[in-house]
């Protein structure tokens, strides 16, 4: 008889949509994970979700978990990530933090300093890297299939339907919109796939009118050791966009869905209408949250074995810097139908 | 002048969103937008604005009292859109009564209530319909509930002296209009049918024109205790409206006229007519044609010379296109993954009645009482709509 597999005891802090929809279902499947505590300021919510997933303990103060678990998933609103994560690391807990890592680069650096000082693991939930298509894109680009890559074009937009439990994303004075929400995934994929070392935001236009932006168009340049390329990232909470990333090189274009898929398309130069399709061999039907299962399992394995099978927090610094740059440089997208009768507010300008 | 606080219910909707935008960016009003839940693209659009968002439930008076704290004006747009008919009615009727109660308790200066021109029925009699036309909502839940809600508003005005203004807009159209803008475009893209050749009267109001009227009524006491139709001066027919929308799209199936009688027969699905031979039959043949020819690159290329097929193809996700061409795992045929064939859908009974109605609503009263003037004519509205449709990627 095999000895029982060792499991890492987790607390999940924050019981909002991402916890209920992804982390808790994933934890039920990950064989080396057991969630023993669910934490939420709203204790009734914590109780309801804990009961649903048969989590034995629900509490409203995360400090009560110190000494009782090995690791935490921090899935609270972004502006609380740094404080909670640092507190947890200071008490010896390993932290898998939902994206974005923090609300500022400065906070993120404090988190990384705490991680190094306490010799704990600090991972960032960049689950998109785990998809088959993202992995293949990276390999194909590294293989120089496209030759020199000169341009990229990334779009992700849906009509926002995430079942938010609270209005923190839309109500908090500290909240930001689609750039901070979707941007981390796409900036991270761009950096990681291209093996980029530096990036510069050339322009960022969004549609915030004093609240949080629902649409943004970012132009940027990225640089790796071997090449420089420029491109655009378009994001939306209100429109269904193409939802793919395209990389253009000397020998053609590679395209894959931003959320991950079992297909990657290659458009050889001069044959843009008829791509070659690379398809995952005998793909199993994709299970809901399977990337979250892998992410949690890998993190738990790292805690057990002292390896680093997760995306370390320091890799988020580059994307966080870009997001800060976006907000720093932002100008307004002004639409004609919106400006009508509001010319005084928009100052007679129209960027479109 | 001290700025005033305004509460908008139904603020995530088409009209509420634009009203919040116009108020927040173009006036001194402090806007509180009441939302039922924290989700949906309407909320994302609303949250761009410098306003307060507050979660409340029309059926929970306590939550409404909090939402209406320090409020001077309430614009009540929300009505029941989800759930079964009883729930919708409850939200529209009891929800309105709760708003009226809260307005009294909070001594709100004025409630602007949104009723609908449809309280007069979809085909009100008379060539010109003014605000004194009789109610004839029938049993349809939206019209019936709106009529009930409006009666409550009058009751609170007459019995308790609550200052109210009632708007009865007809067809509201414009950017972000799902039903009377985006739906019509989608219909045209897949084959629209004009009832009676499109000769019915289109009683339209462009969203910004309606908001102009709301802003006037907010500021002018002469509006209190009155109901207003707000309709554009353009006297369009539905045929003209559909033609104008169709002209925005490079390629689409031709608009097709059918009489009310033909639609009735077709709806029963038991009689031959040329809709079948003109549209349905050839369109149903398309999957079969594709089945035998799509895997040939030459044929694919030829098919892409047909503009509307090219248009449809450009909008299909790449994986779907690929499955059409290559099948999936070798087990399925190319047609298994095809989207539904393009085919015109028959308008339902309500739409047939509305599209064939000849009555024109009058906007004389609001012009006379409030000095209202339409600022955006149909042609200018179309330019704005075209820009929005392109931005929204609903047209190329």
Task: Describe the protein.
- In chain A, 33% of the residues lie in helices and 25% in strands.
- Chain A has 12 helices and 15 strands.
- Chain A has a 9-stranded mixed β-sheet, covered by helices on one side. A 6-stranded parallel β-sheet of chain A has the order 3-2-1-4-5-6, with helices on both faces.
- Chain B is of the alpha/beta class and 396 residues long.
- Chain B has a 7-stranded parallel β-sheet, sandwiched between helices. A two-stranded parallel ribbon of chain B has the order 6-15. In chain B, strands 8-11 form a two-stranded parallel ribbon.
- In chain B, helix 2 links the parallel strand 2 and strand 3.
- In chain B, helix 1 packs across helix 7 and helix 4 packs parallel to helix 5.
- Chains A and B meet through helix 6 and helix 11 of A and helix 1, helix 2, helix 13 and helix 16 of B.
What are the key terms here?
heterodimer; A: 352 residues; alpha/beta; Rossmann fold; Dihydrodipicolinate Reductase, domain 2; 9-stranded mixed beta sheet; 6-stranded parallel beta sheet; 12 helices; B: 396 residues; 7-stranded parallel beta sheet; 16 helices; 15 strands
Topology, element by element:
The complex is a heterodimer of chains A (352) and B (396).
Chain A: E1 8-13, H1 17-29, E2 33-39, H2 43-52, E3 57-59, E4 71-74, H3 81-90, E5 94-98, H4 105-118, E6 122-125, H5 132-142, E7 149-157, H6 168-171, H7 178-181, H8 183-194, E8 198-206, E9 215-223, E10 228-236, E11 244-249, E12 252-257, E13 263-268, E14 276-279, H9 290-305, H10 317-329, E15 331-332, H11 336-339, H12 343-346
Parallel strand pairs in A: 1-2, 1-4, 2-3, 4-5, 5-6, 7-10, 8-15
Antiparallel strand pairs in A: 7-11, 8-9, 9-10, 11-12, 12-13, 13-14
Chain B: E1 5-9, H1 14-26, E2 30-35, H2 41-46, E3 52-55, H3 61-67, E4 73-76, H4 85-105, E5 110-114, E6 128-129, H5 141-160, E7 164-167, E8 171-173, H6 178-190, E9 193-195, E10 201-202, E11 204-206, H7 207-219, E12 226-228, E13 236-237, H8 238-246, E14 256-258, H9 260-268, H10 274-293, H11 297-303, H12 307-315, H13 318-326, H14 349-356, E15 360-361, H15 364-370, H16 378-391
Parallel strand pairs in B: 1-2, 1-4, 2-3, 4-5, 5-7, 6-15, 7-12, 8-11, 9-14
Antiparallel strand pairs in B: 10-13
Helix pairs in contact in B: 1-7, 4-5
């Amino acid at each position: 008889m095999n000895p029982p597999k060792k499991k890492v005891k987790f607390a999940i802090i924050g019981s909002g949509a991402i916890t209920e929809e992804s982390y808790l279902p994933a934890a039920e499947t990950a064989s080396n994970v057991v969630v023993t505590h669910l934490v939420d300021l709203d204790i009734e919510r914590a109780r309801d979700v804990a009961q649903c997933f048969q989590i034995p303990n629900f509490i409203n103060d995360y400090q009560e978990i110190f000494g009782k678990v090995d690791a935490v998933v921090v899935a609270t609103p972004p502006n609380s990530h740094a404080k909670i994560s640092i507190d947890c690391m200071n008490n010896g807990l390993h932290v898998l933090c939902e994206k974005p890592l923090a609300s500022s680069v400065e906070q993120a650096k404090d988190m990384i300093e705490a991680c190094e000082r306490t010799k704990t693991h600090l991972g960032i939930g960049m689950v998109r890297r785990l998809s088959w298509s993202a992995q293949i894109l990276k390999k194909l680009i590294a293989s120089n299939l496209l030759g020199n890559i000169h341009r990229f074009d990334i779009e992700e937009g849906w009509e926002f339907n995430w079942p938010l439990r609270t209005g923190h994303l839309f109500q908090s004075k500290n909240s930001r919109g689609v750039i901070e929400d979707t941007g981390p995934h796409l900036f991270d994929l761009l950096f990681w796939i291209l093996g980029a070392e530096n990036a510069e935001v050339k322009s960022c236009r969004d549609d915030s009118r004093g609240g949080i932006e629902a649409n943004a168009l970012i132009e940027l340049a990225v640089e790796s050791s071997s090449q420089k390329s420029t491109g655009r990232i378009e994001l939306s909470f209100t429109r269904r966009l193409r939802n793919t990333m395209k990389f253009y090189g000397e020998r053609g274009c590679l395209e894959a869905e931003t959320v991950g898929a079992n297909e990657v398309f290659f458009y050889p130069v001069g044959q843009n209408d008829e791509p070659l399709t690379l398809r995952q061999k005998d793909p199993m039907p994709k299970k809901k949250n399977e990337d979250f299962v892998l992410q949690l399992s890998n993190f738990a394995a790292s805690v057990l074995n002292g390896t680093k099978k997760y995306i370390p927090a320091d890799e988020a610094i580059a994307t966080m810097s870009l997001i800060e740059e976006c907000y720093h440089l932002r100008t307004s997208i002004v639409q004609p139908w919106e400006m009508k009768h509001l010319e005084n507010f928009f100052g007679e300008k129209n960027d479109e | 002048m001290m700025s005033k606080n305004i509460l908008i219910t139904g603020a995530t909707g088409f009209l509420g969103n634009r009203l919040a935008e116009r108020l927040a960016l173009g006036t001194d009003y402090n806007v509180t937008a009441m939302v039922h839940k924290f989700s949906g693209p309407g909320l994302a659009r609303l949250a761009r604005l410098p306003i307060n968002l507050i979660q409340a439930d029309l059926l929970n008076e306590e939550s409404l009292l909090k939402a209406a704290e320090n409020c001077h004006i309430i614009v009540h747009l929300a009505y029941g859109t989800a759930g079964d008919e009883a729930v919708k009615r409850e939200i529209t009727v009891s929800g309105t009564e709760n708003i009226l109660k809260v307005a009294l308790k909070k001594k709100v200066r004025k409630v602007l209530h949104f009723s609908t021109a449809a309280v007069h029925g979809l085909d009100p009699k008379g060539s010109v319909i003014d605000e004194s036309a009789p109610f004839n909502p029938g049993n349809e839940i939206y019209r019936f509930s709106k009529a009930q809600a409006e009666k409550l508003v009058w009751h609170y005005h007459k019995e308790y002296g609550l200052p109210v203004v009632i708007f009865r807009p007809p067809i509201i159209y414009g950017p972000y209009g799902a039903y009377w803008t985006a739906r019509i475009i989608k219909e045209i893209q897949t084959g629209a049918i004009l009832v009676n050749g499109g000769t019915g009267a289109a009683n339209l109001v462009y969203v910004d024109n309606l908001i102009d009227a709301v802003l006037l009524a907010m500021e002018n006491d002469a509006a209190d205790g009155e109901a207003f139709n707000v309709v554009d001066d353009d006297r369009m027919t539905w045929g003209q409206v559909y033609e104008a929308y169709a002209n925005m799209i490079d390629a689409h199936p031709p608009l097709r006229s059918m009489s009310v009688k033909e639609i009735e027969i077709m709806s029963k699905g038991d009689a031959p007519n040329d809709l079948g031979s003109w549209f349905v039959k050839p369109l149903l043949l398309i999957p079969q044609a594709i089945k035998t020819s799509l895997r040939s690159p030459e044929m694919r290329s030829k098919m892409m010379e047909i503009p509307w097929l090219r248009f449809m193809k450009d909008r299909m996700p790449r994986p779907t296109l690929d499955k059409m061409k290559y099948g999936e795992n070798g087990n399925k045929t190319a047609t298994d993954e095809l989207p539904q064939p393009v085919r015109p859908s028959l308008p339902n009974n309500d739409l047939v009645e509305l599209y064939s109605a000849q009555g024109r609503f009058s906007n004389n009263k609001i012009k006379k009482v409030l000095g209202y003037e339409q600022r955006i004519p149909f042609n200018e509205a179309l330019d704005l709509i075209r820009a929005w449709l392109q931005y929204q990627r609903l047209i190329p």
